[in-house]
Amino acid sequence: MDYFPIFLKLQGAPCLLVGGGEVALRKARLLLSVGAELTVVAPELTPELAEMAKQGQLTHLRACFEPAQLSGRRLVVAATNEREVNRQVSVSCQTLNIPVNVVDDPDLSSYITPSIVDRSPLVIAVSTGGGVPVLARLIRGRLESLIPSGFGRLARFAAGFRDRVKAGIPDVERRRTFWESVLEGPLAEAVINGDEAAAVQAMERRLEDAGKQTAQGAVYLVGAGPGNPDLLTFRALRLMQQADVVLHDNLVAPELLELVRRDAERIYVGKARANHALPQGDINLLMVELAQQGKRVLRLKGGDPFTFGRGGEEIETLAAHGIAFEVVPGITSASGAAAYAGIPLTHRDYAQSVTFVTGHKQDGSIHLDWPALTRPAQTVVVYMGVSTAQELCLAFIEHGKPATTPAAAVEWATTERQRTVAGTLRDLPELMSKHHIASPALIIVGEVVGLADKLGWYRTRVC
Ligand code: SAH
Q1: Is residue 192 within 6 Å of ligand 1 at its C-beta?
Q2: Residue 271 catalytic?
Q3: Mean pLDDT computed over 424-445
Q4: Which of 33, 104, 291, 340 could cysteine-pair with 458, CB 3.0–4.6 Å?
Q5: Ligand 1 pocket member 383 (CB < 6 A)
Q6: Does ligand 1 come within 6 angstroms of the Cβ of 295?
Q7: Strand ranges of the sheet holding 296-301, from the earlier edge strand across to the other edge
Q8: Is 384 annotated as a binding residue?
Q9: Is residue 302 annotated as involved in ligand binding?
Q10: Ligand 1 centroid to 228 CA: how many Å?
């Protein structure tokens, strides 16, 4: 490391800013936001800086820089566009051991300013040693999107309990575990979601129980989207990185599982058709058991948990056992396939409604409302329909849908393995078997499928 990272307290500290332009204005705002007592030395000020001086937020020295102005300063920033002036400031400060930053000039600076993510009191500073500020800003951008705005609230909330927790749990190691379970558990989620009253109550209870150490687990039923990791929600990603144990099935791509916290336990409860690794009832009870052991259980589901995901059944069991849970929606595969295959599910000219159905057989046959599904001006998306494609397409035709209606199958939608075959109700089953389209795939029926020729943008079509 070339620089020693610190956070400096500058409330009421005399600081000098050399320069009166736009760059100086940004630095002035930053210094004032931490309560510095700011003097700006410059022959001229921008209108905003002049206004700030007029309102008494800073003192303006209408002059050129002179070393005498440094007397008593805690920190100096040089933001003029004249390198010679900046150099003089730098040399004078370094003689007097006053920390100095020359904007965008690490060679003349004794300290550099990082890119910051401000969730005060939580602040993250990113630096590339002054070498590649753009990279620091890119990383900052990523962190901005990863760390919800509610984290500031969480940091304030936790700070408010700091002394009491310290007094209540004197042992350092136990206190650390306590904070970890608070900051990564349902209580923290409540604060982030803005339910502070509930969080305060829960915190009081936790403090009372601190001696007894009764950890309370929770289950997060999380939609992982159709397979492309970029389509995860921020919330899904965050919960994935906190989980103690993850229950997943075969719809969850390995790339997604890699994003789960490294030391989380992984349990495969997969469901290849007719080869249920674990019956649904057992999965439900396993989650209850793990949560009762105080674990944060992540139930990761392909697509959206409430769209053909049996998410409802899973949380009914949790609710019945009084386990805390949360549901995080995901992009359902129909939305993913539609977007990535260029098939808008509704379209003013072709489809005023869209229906999602399952092609899965129950008691040996497909139970669907055919009169409704064959009405014109709608799109039908069939989940779990690969093995019954032939029967499905035939049933559409038998119930009055023209055999020439466009129909497509999209396999592994949104992933690098995506393949689309498109034809009509009459020839789709044959095309699917010719190209060995296998699960997971969706069948989309309706005039909108015809738009894929024009609107498809992701990966080439198979046919
Ligand atoms: N909850 C999931 C659906 C689970 S049912 C969701 O919201 O998407 C399983 C079916 O979803 C599969 O048989 C297939 O029809 C569909 N499916 C899931 N992921 C898919 C993908 N990446 N591409 C195409 N179909 C997919």
Answers
A1: no
A2: yes
A3: 97
A4: 340
A5: yes
A6: no
A7: 265-268, 245-248, 296-301, 218-223, 324-328
A8: yes
A9: yes
A10: 12
| Interacting residues of 405 by C-beta distance below 8 A, sequence separation 6+ | 396, 424, 425, 445, 446, 447
Per residue in 231-272, pLDDT (tens digit) is: 999 899 989 988 889 999 888 888 899 899 888 899 999 765
Q: Say if domain 334-455 classifies as CATH 3.30.420.40.
A: no
Are the C-beta atoms of residues 408 and 423 closer than 8 Å to each other? yes
Q: Hey, what are 366's tokens? A: 């497909």
Residue 301's H or E segment, with its range, is strand 296-301
Q: In angstroms, rounded to a whole number, what is the distance separating the alpha carbons of residues 455 and 338?
A: 10
Please write the tens of the pLDDT for every residue from 319-353.
Answer: 999 999 999 999 999 999 999 999 999 999 999 99
Tell me where in the chain the CATH 3.40.50.720 domain(s) lie: 14-113
Instruction: Quote the pTM value.
Output: 0.68
Q: List where CATH 1.10.8 sits in the chain.
A: 151-210
- For the Cβ of 340 lying below 6 angstroms from any atom of ligand 1, the answer is no
What's the 409 CA to ligand 1 centre distance in angstroms?
A: 12
Phi-psi region of 104 (alpha: psi -120 to 50; beta: other; left: phi over 0): left
Tell me: is residue 107 an annotated ligand-binding position. Answer: no
Q: Is 342 in the pocket of ligand 1 (CB under 6 A)?
A: no
For residue 311, the ligand 1 atom closest to its alpha carbon is 1
What pLDDT is attached to residue 364? 84
Token pair of 134, please?
């753009």
Domain 151-210 class, CATH top level:
mainly alpha
Q: What is the CATH number of domain 14-113?
A: 3.40.50.720
* pLDDT higher than threshold 90 for residue 279: no
Q: Is 104 annotated as a binding residue?
A: no
**CATH 3.30.950.10 residue window(s) in the chain:** 334-455
Mark whether 249 is an active-site residue: yes
Contact 89, 100 (CB under 8 A): yes
Q: Look at residue 459 in the predicted model and tell me its pLDDT.
A: 72
Catalytic residue among 27, 244, 249, 401: 249
121 assigned ligand-binding residue: no
Q: Is the CB of 307 under 6 A from ligand 1?
A: yes
Higher pLDDT, 180 or 103: 103
Mutate to test the pocket of ligand 1, among 414, 415, 442 (most ligand atoms within 8 A of CB): 442
Torsions phi, psi for 60 (to 5 deg): -100, 125
Q: Which residue type occupies 357?
A: V
CATH topology of domain 218-331: Cobalt-precorrin-4 Transmethylase; domain 1 (3.40.1010)
Q: Which residues contact 90 (CB under 8 A, 6 or more apart)?
A: 78, 100, 102, 108, 109, 110
